Amino acid sequence: MDIIGIAQPIKDLLLVVEQIPDKNSFTTLLDYSSQGGGKVSTALAAAARLGMECAVAGTVGKDAKGQFVREDFIRHGIQVEQLKEREEGKTGYCVCIAEKCSPNRRFLGERPTVKQLMPEELDPDFLKQAKAIHLETPDAVSVAAAQFAKSQGITVSMDADPYPDETDALMEMESLIDIYIGSEAYFKVRSKGKPFRDTLYEIAQKGCRVAAVTLGDQGLEAVIDGRYIRIPAFHKLPVADTTGAGDVFHGAFLSAWIKGMEPSRCLELASAASAIKCASIGGRAGIPDWEMTNYFLETGELIKKDTIREREKFYKNLVI
C-alpha cells in the first residue's frame, strides 16, 4: 500500500457561467459536472491515476451521495474497505459556481452530518501497510493516525487550509508532520503578518522535511530539508476551473515522493499535474496520469486529450 487517506468525502456539483448574474437576473449555464470531492479524497484519486496503490478511511452517510462517493473511489481503484457507511447523518455536498471571465468561484456547501471516524475505529494493521498517511484536518482521528504513523516510521502528509477554529490545533500537530503543504489562505492566517518564508522555516524546524505554501498562479514557496526555494506556476494551459487544484497537487506530490524523486522535482511534477487538471471542470475529470504529466513537464504540450474529454463527458452525464 502506498497512500492511506483519512477523509471526510463529499459530492461536488460544478457549474460554469460567464459571470455570476446580478440579483433577479438570468445567465446561461455554460457547463456542469457531478464529481466526487473532498481534499484528501481527490488527492487519493490523483495518486491512484498516477499509479499509486491507495485506500481511504472515513465515513459517508447511507444515502445517494454516499453511494456516489464510494463508487467514484472504486472507479479510481481506491480501496474502500475502511470507508464506513453510517445509518444516521448525511454525506456532505458542495455546489461550486465558477466564472469563465475570471478566476472567481462561489461555494454553496451542505456540511456532512454523518459522524466522523473515531480514533478507536482506526485499524493499526491497516495503517501499517502505508508508506504515507495523508490528512486534511487536525481532528482526533487524524492526530491519532499521525501519532501512530510517526511511531512506525510512516510519512505523514497534511493539506493545511484555514478552517475556522482549527489553526491552533493544526499548529500543535506540526511536529508530527513530515510533508506540510498549505494554501495561501491558510498561511495568511498561520503567519500572522510575517513573511511566508519565515513561517516555512519555523515549521521546518519542528522536524518537517517539506514545508510549502501554494500561491496559485504565482507558483509556490517551500523549505525542503532546511533549504528555501521558489517554483513558478505553469501558464501554458487554459484554466477552466481551479476546483481541486490543490488536492491534485498533494496527490501528485506524494506519488513522486514515494517514487523517490528529488523533493524539488516532486513539487514541479505536482505543479504540472495541478495545471493539467485546471484545464477541465471539477477536481477529478482532468487528473492526468504519469505519462501525461511527464510529457507536459518535458514539452509543455498536453497528450491524451481524448481521454480527458471522455472523462468530462462521463461526469457531465452523472448530473441528474
Can you tell me about this structure?
- Strand 8, helix 4 and strand 9 form a beta-alpha-beta unit.
- Helix 1 (about 40-50) crosses helix 8 (about 245-260).
- The chain is globular and about 55 Å long.
- The protein has helices at about 40-50, 65-75, 125, 140-150, 165-175, 185-190, 195-205, 245-260, 265-275, 290-300, 305-315, and strands spanning about 5, 10-15, 30-35, 55-60, 80-85, 90-100, 105-110, 130-135, 155-160, 180-185, 210-215, 220-225, 225-230.
- The strands form two sheets. The chain has a nine-stranded mixed sheet, with helices on both faces. Strands 3-2-6-7 form a four-stranded mixed sheet.
- The chain is an alpha/beta fold and about 325 residues long.
- The protein is about 35% helix and about 25% strand.
- The chain has eleven helices and 13 strands.
Broad structural category:
alpha/beta
Oligomer: single chain
Biggest sheet architecture = 9 strands, mixed
The value of Rg in angstroms is: 19 Å
Q: Report the portion of residues in β strands.
A: 25-35%
Q: Given the C-alpha coordinates, what overall shape results?
A: globular
**Major β-sheet strand ordering:** 5-4-1-8-9-10-11-12-13
- Round the mean pLDDT to the nearest integer and report it: 95
The residue fraction in helices comes out at 25-40%
**Runs with pLDDT <50, length 5+?**
none
